[in-house]
Model the fold of this input.
Amino acid sequence: MKINGKKKYITFLKFKRDFQKYGLEKARSYELILHWLKNRLSRSQFLILSGILVGCTAGLAGVLLKTLVHSIHFFITNKVHFEYQILFYVVFPFLGIVLTTMVVLTLFKGQDRKGIGSILYEIAQNSSIVSSVKMYSQIIQSAITVGLGGSAGLESPIAVTGAAIGSNYAQTYQLSYKELTLLLAAGATAGIASAFNAPIAGIMFAFEILLTGVVFTDFIPLVVAAVCGSLLSRILLQEDILFRFYTREDFNYKNLPYYFILGIITGLYARYFVVMSQKVEHFIKGLNMSLLRKAMLGGAVLSLLCVLFPPLFGEGYDTIKSFTNGNVHSIIENSFFRYFDIGQWSIVLFLILILLLKAFATPFTIFSGGNGGNFAPSLFAGGSLGYLFALLCQQIGFEQAPVTNLVLVGMAGAMSGVLYAPLTAIFLIAESSFGYDLFIPLMIVSVISYLIAKWFSPISPELKILAEQGKIFTHKHDKNLLFRLKTAHFLDLQSEVISENASLKELFELVKNGRKNIFAVINDHKTLKGILTLDDIRPYLFSDHNEEIIMKNIMKAPPGIIRLSDQPLDILQMFDNTETWNLPVVDNDNMFLGFISKSSILLSYRELLKTYSE
Done:
């Protein structure tokens, strides 16, 4: 017993010395254990362990958010009489957006970057480093917004939360950029998988939206994270919260014409949805109002829409389940349409108005101050569109139209056209409906919708916004690695400068004592006036020169000037256009800061590419 105790004590001392070596004396117990495991496991083993931990954490975050929002919805829509529900529809959506804005302004200092675009921004512009605040800020904001009736989805906030969890985990254990990006994607994957209980769709989301054009050999952490997130969702969430559809018809090839037509309709609707969202966004951003007043305006618009059309309240998944269960009358009975004769054409008109107004309710929710995403709205709109199409087919005599299947594939079509994610949409609906025999109609509708969306705009709305801001390069994603490089990092702070009034003798002394072959000519205010190279000086080296010659007489204008705000990709293009290897950098006041060489950028890019490909 004493010998065993002594061995344990020696092992503990070695364990402690390792932690002191890496400066981890103040780390938490579980962090110490993981640091110890990192140094003893192989890289692949530690990444798999990391995928499990990140996946479980992100999955729990998704379960927490879905449960919280569902509980609020259940109280508002099921425990309150219809007359009081109207009052709730007036008050709660308004409060949801206003309270979210107040939380952002007071707790998060006005930093409200949200949606999938925020993840793409962090990958392209911030070396995949996501603020730790986003591990909980998105949950708080979206729970308030959607829980109180915001017409948006929870999946984007869940994905951002998962990405923040993965990123901060990788930062804590000092992983490389490639591993950091991989675990960021793993967190987002687990979030999506838990939201829909669809692990394959979560993986497709990562590869199709977050990691477009990036090849990862270490994809196992994504898989295990998706499985963990989906399992936790399946175990912890109640059956009525799960995104599940149990009723559908068998696939019949004779119904293919319905799917081809629905693919075109969903593609056109997706374009309508995107255009209306952009118009509402520009309208709100153009208002000369405070953020709180914008929130009040958006909340008022949303409340009015929810009072008139209750299906616009919240995510809308219950409405889609009613379509697939053939219980559409219960939806209308909770609206003002209950006071009219409910016939088939009344339902048609009701659905058309819902589809038209959903394209306004969602952007007013998101851009006026709420927090949410377009996952749920696109699925809601697609399901409603599929049911409307089936209803119209039956009204004109095609009574054999597969109603439930059209609802399901309609969801995939609208999501594919809005998010530019056909594979994610296909697997999401296939997994959620156990409808793997629906792959053919799902592929037909999703691909047609996607192609129509691409015909109108080659890149998705999220990427387009970042591209217009110069934050991401959209044509060849390997070039997005250049956005990780910062212009200031390439400045030669030891660049040689000389006054424009200096003599040739002073210049020769500078050449004699220095090691540079290019010089910046500046005035007394350090403003760049021109440049000189050794080739420019050579004619004066071995000739009788005039002592009165000063720099302003022999300097030349630089072939190009770089600003600190210029992106490395633009700088490389300038080097190619000017056919030079060194260019001066100035600030906004034209003050000289230093030279940048083309070789330094290319060398850094090669090193980054090598690291990313290993």
